[in-house]
Amino acid sequence: MxxxxxxxxxxxxxxxxxxxxxxNLLNSIIIFMSYSLIMAIIWILLxxxxxxxxxxxxxxxxxxxxxxxxxxxxxxxxxxxxxxxxENHKNKK
Length: 93
What we know:
single chain; mainly alpha
C-alpha cells in the first residue's frame, strides 16, 4: 500500500507542475481535475473520507464546472460546426 501512496504522490507532483507549464487553458482545467481526484484518493488512503468527499465535490466537480463555464463565456472554447468550417474554408480560398 505504501508503494501505491508514493505513486499517487508522484502523480500529484506531476499534475501540479504540468498545470503551471500548460499553455492551453482547457488542458489546465483537465489536469486540475485530475489533481483533485488524486488528492481525494490520497485523503481516502489517509482515512479521512469527509475531506475526500469535499475534495472530489468541490475540487474536481464544482470548481471545474465553473472553469468550463468561464472559458465558454470568454469564448476561449468555441463550438465546432461541420457546416461552418466548410463555409469558412471556402471563403478563405
